[in-house]
Amino acid sequence: MIPEPLNSEAPHRPGRFWLLTIAAILTVAATVSLGRWQLSRAAQKEALQASIDAERQKPALDQAEFLALAQASDSLHRPVRLRGLWLTPQTVYLDNRQMHGVPGFYVLTPFALEGTEQAVMIQRGWVQRNFVDRTKLGAVETPPGIVEVTGLIEPPPSHLLELGTPAAAASAPAPAASAPLQAPAAEGSSSIRQNLDLEAFRAETKLPLRTDVSLQQTGPASEGLQRDWPAPALGLERHYGYAFQWFGLSALVVILYVWFQFITPFRRSRRRARDERRL
């Protein structure tokens, strides 16, 4: 019986070799392209962060300059000083907000601008929640009369994932004499809310409230509130992580290609040569 040649697979190898080569090239090209796209997204967000930092370093606008802005949203993150009156009965507590990893509330109060018929929602700060009774709100001091507030022009309050409807919000207890901010915003509503839509709030309270922007009050802790606001979550680390994964996958494809297309056949041919010599 004539033994079967040891290199009987050779006639089939060229087609398989080129098929795997094309597949490897396409895979590497796709993964490298996706990695570069993630790096470009990270660069865009770094530029956005730089623009935010630059806006925060600009001189604060006074109230007249703020009111003269055609689009206040074009001056986001710019400091501004406003004078007016706190509308304390319409204060809202946004639930499930954290500061330094501690759950609590963001306290928001409408602010009537002096000499105008406008009001702006001010994110005043953060107060820790009561872990025994979540509806028991901490005391927040609110200065009476005309006051000056300094803060940053920011978008309306961000929204968290909300289960159910706003009507299902928890009801706050009757306000105590020492904590006037605990008064509900309006009859049938709650001062504790998961989210706040400024358009809906304006319709609910009948206030001449601006709905395009809000003000994020800055400065040291005061009035029972902390103001270590978290930086905007731009997701830079996520983009760099995805880029590393795509480039790592490209490197893995190259390593596997070289191993199975060159190293493994070379080792197999050497083994066959040794077997032939033994025969």
Q: How would you portray this structure in words?
A:
- This protein has 279 residues and is an alpha+beta fold.
- The protein has two domains: 53-217, no CATH class; 235-270.
- It has helices at residues 13-56, 63-68, 198-205, 236-278; strands at 79-86, 92-99, 102-113, 119-128, 146-154, 192-193, 214-217.
- Strands 1-3-4-7-5 form a five-stranded mixed β-barrel.
- Helix 1 (13-56) runs antiparallel to helix 4.
- The radius of gyration is 32 Å and the shape is elongated.
- The relative contact order is 0.17.
- Per DSSP, the total helix count is 4
Number of distinct beta strands:
7
Major beta-sheet overview: 5 strands, mixed, barrel
**Unreliable stretches:** 1-11, 166-189
- Spatial strand arrangement across the major sheet: 1-3-4-7-5
Strand content: 15-25%
* Share of residues in helices: 25-40%
Quaternary structure of the protein:
single chain
Mean pLDDT: 83
Provide keyphrases for this structure.
279 residues, alpha+beta, 2 domains, 4 helices
Secondary structure layout plus pairing:
Layout: H1 13-56, H2 63-68, E1 79-86, E2 92-99, E3 102-113, E4 119-128, E5 146-154, E6 192-193, H3 198-205, E7 214-217, H4 236-278
Parallel strand pairs: 2-6, 4-7
Antiparallel strand pairs: 1-3, 1-5, 2-3, 3-4, 5-7
Helix pairs in contact: 1-4
